[in-house]
Design brief:
This protein is α/β, with parallel strands linked by helices. The protein is about 40% helix and about 25% strand. The chain contains 7 helices and 7 strands; from the N terminus they run ααβαβαβαβαβαββ. Strands 3-2-1-4-5-7-6 form a 7-stranded mixed β-sheet, with helices on both faces. The relative contact order is 0.16.
């Protein structure tokens, strides 16, 4: 397949991934294994285990790439270290800096988008990524229950019946919104 990165499947990769937010980590792994995305974009790395989980799942699939954008150097380094500990560094690229810069250089379609930064940035970032998303692309936003006012515009956008998304609020780990692009 074009743009695919071959990654080696390994039980060591799966077992090395730390479990911090177990329910969301399991959801992310399931989404990668079910959908087989070629490009996973993570914006914000609040939990390095999520970056490692995504990279390990992509590794299990044997193709694809995780691109994680984190403006905070310490968080980005922690995410990169977690990916390396999982043995999945060939499947992930952790970038330090504002996500808008990384998005400008992204030529591939985004199959799975994980929003983990400040909730008020979810809608502007989604709008930047939307031109690169095909029908069936999945959006996962973290912490929406804990800070509903800060992500109200994002939630209204993905939950609106004519938005082109089918969205579902999941009641774990501070609230997770999962939306699938229908059109």
């Amino acid at each position: 397949m074009p743009n695919a990165v071959s990654c080696t499947d390994s039980a060591a990769v799966r077992s090395a991934v730390p479990s911090f937010e177990a329910a969301t980590g399991t959801l992310l792994r399931q989404l990668v294994l079910a959908a087989g995305p070629l490009t996973v974009l993570q914006i914000g790395c609040p939990y390095e285990s999520f970056t490692a989980t995504l990279a390990a799942a992509v590794s299990e699939m044997g193709q694809g790439r995780v691109i994680a954008c984190e403006p905070d150097t310490v968080r980005a380094e922690a995410a990169a270290a977690a990916v390396a500990k999982a043995g999945a560094e060939r499947c992930a690229d952790v970038r330090v800096g504002r996500p808008e810069r990384s998005l400008a250089a992204l030529a591939r379609p985004v199959d799975l988008l994980l929003l983990g930064g400040p909730p008020q940035s979810f809608l502007p970032l989604l709008e930047l990524v939307e031109p690169r998303m095909l029908p069936g692309a999945v959006v996962v936003a973290l912490g929406v229950r804990d800070e509903p006012a800060r992500c109200a515009d994002f939630l209204a956008h993905v939950r609106f019946p004519g938005s082109g998304y089918v969205s579902l609020s999941l009641p774990f780990d501070g609230g997770v919104e999962m939306a699938v692009r229908a059109a």
